[in-house]
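pinging the channel bc i need a second pair of eyes. not urgent but kinda urgent?? the chain im working w is below, pasted from the shared doc
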Amino acid sequence: MIDLKSLVRTDLAPKPPIITLYGTGKIGKSTLAASFPNPVFIRTEDGTDNLAVDAFPLANTFKDVTEALTSLCGDHDFQTLVVDSLDWLEPLIWNEVAEDCGAASINDESCKALTYGKGMALAADKWRDKYLKAINFLRDSKEMTIVQIAHNQIKRFDAPDTDPYDRYGIKLHAKAAALVSEDSDIIFFANYKTFTKEKDVGFNKNVTRALGNGQRVLHTTETPAWQAGNRYGMPAEITLNLSDDGLCDIKTILKHIPYFKNKKKSKSSTQTKGN
């Protein structure tokens, strides 16, 4: 029975974040993810060749991924799970949907269970019930930060109050992208910083050129040009710098996330009491 006696006070202690990190190819997404505290990688693509990280064997099936997730429910010292990458995970989910239905592929129209978009609905169920539920358990019960890497693609965005326009988004099917986005505390869009400059080319004509200096940045808030967002009021743009060990200077990011700020305060308080 639900009544006033059943009210409970919610826990205000911040949880580790679930982060989706997507962006331009070769910009250093895996390097950034490896910079988070004590990470372990579930790899669906081999993007860690130049990184010394703990990683499960390359996943060739969705079952490989779920087994790795299950193994992390046991005792271990890892603090961050990195999934590299979501857009290579997606075909593994599609393959399992097809296998479950005895079909050649998720688009096999000869299989009634997959017609009229039913295949993508079944894939969405696997994203929700097997993958997202697992990473949320690891965040809530094992206190792990989750970093999910993805590539970007330019997508048509149909806004209700303007004409449709193109913008950068996560390279996933629309159903999967919506589920992943909704579940994320932070969506980082990694790109190179650019600015525009007009140049007079004569005959009363100006040409606008895009320029850049190679500086890598994380965008944390939504604009018409890209999908991004966060629950923490982070700066709209964070500059990515390398630290002495060749990884990213992760402190510039962690200082804006309540879970890590709270851990730092707790550590300082413990040290003060000890002294």
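so The chain has one domain: 13-274. and The mean pLDDT is 90. — does that match what u expected or am i reading it wrong
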